[in-house]
Write a structure and sequence with these properties.
By secondary structure, the protein is an alpha/beta fold. The protein is built from 10 helices and 7 strands. 37% of the residues lie in helices and 16% in strands.
Length: 292
């Protein structure tokens, strides 16, 4: 989801008026992808979750970004990583800033898997109402929490992970809206959890964030993009994490046949070093594991 911590909500100066609107916006791309005959995934709930408001926001995006191909690609990459970890014994998924994500309902998951979503109270309440008639495929629990409240966050994480020995933490679309200090704090909190074996994040370079800022103009005025370390995955390696996998969203979009035609020539360029991004326009999905 697209997330911003500004007292939990965005103000009305932007087409995106609150955090629920941004979640609907991302759901639009899942709905559009699901409607394709060659869909990479099937989210039967996305259209109703997005609603008319989500459609309206998506159509305000610049024409070249309107298809949402990076978010579609990111969704598919994370789907595959989650299912791979579950197949290898993951017993708990903790999704921070879960938004309107529907993986517990649409992925093939064992009934014994514990899936815990953490998000703001208002958004969770709305989601529970919209999905009242849907049945998750695993043991789903939701925690109402403002993740900026450090003590409450630590306590909630400990409570969620405590019974598990093979937990996975997911922070899709979250880190980019935090500053470096907030990401460090969250990283250390997750690393301190003995039961966590994997952390899936998405990450962008400074250049790609600047491109996004310019392209989106005032649409996300109240959701400023912040986190984009020049040293990429090395930022996390300095915080007691090991990089298990790195997947370029751009090159995955080529593989999934979702990259727009005007960007295809750039697919011939070599991948940048994910530890030295410099001026490269790069974004990716990364799996981290505890270094110790």
């Amino acid at each position: 989801m697209v997330w911003v911590w500004v007292g939990g909500y965005l103000n009305n100066a932007s087409p995106v008026s609150n955090v629920s609107d941004t979640a609907r916006w991302v759901a639009v791309y899942r709905a559009w992808e699901s409607a394709r005959t060659d869909a990479l995934f099937d989210d039967p709930y996305a259209k109703s979750l997005a609603g008319e408001r989500g459609e309206a926001i998506a159509r305000l995006m610049p024409a070249r970004a309107r298809s949402g191909w990076p978010m579609v690609t990111r969704t598919k990459l994370i789907d595959d990583l989650v299912q791979a970890r579950v197949a290898q014994g993951c017993d708990c998924v903790v999704n921070l800033a879960a938004g309107l994500d529907t993986r517990p309902y649409r992925l093939e998951l064992p009934p014994s898997l514990r899936w815990i979503e953490v998000d703001l109270p208002a958004l969770i309440e709305e989601k529970e109402e919209l999905l009242a008639d849907a049945r998750p495929r695993c043991q789903l629990r939701r925690i109402k929490l403002d993740l900026t409240e450090t003590e409450a966050r630590v306590a909630a994480l400990q409570d969620a992970v405590k019974p598990s020995t093979q937990a996975l933490v997911l922070t899709e679309g979250l880190l980019v809206y935090l500053d470096d200090a907030q990401v460090r704090d969250l990283s250390r909190d997750i690393a301190a959890l003995a039961g966590v074996r994997s952390w899936i994040i998405d990450l962008g370079s400074p250049a790609i964030l600047e491109t996004m800022r310019k392209g989106m103009g005032a649409t996300l005025t109240n959701a400023p993009l912040k986190f984009a370390p020049e040293n990429g995955v090395a930022f996390f390696e300095a915080l007691a994490w090991r990089v298990a996998q790195v997947h370029s969203i751009f090159h995955a979009a080529v593989r999934f046949r979702r990259l727009p035609w005007f960007l295809r020539p750039f697919a011939l360029l070599p991948e940048p070093n994910p530890r030295n991004l410099g001026k490269a326009r790069w974004s990716g999905v990364v799996e981290l594991t505890p270094a110790n």
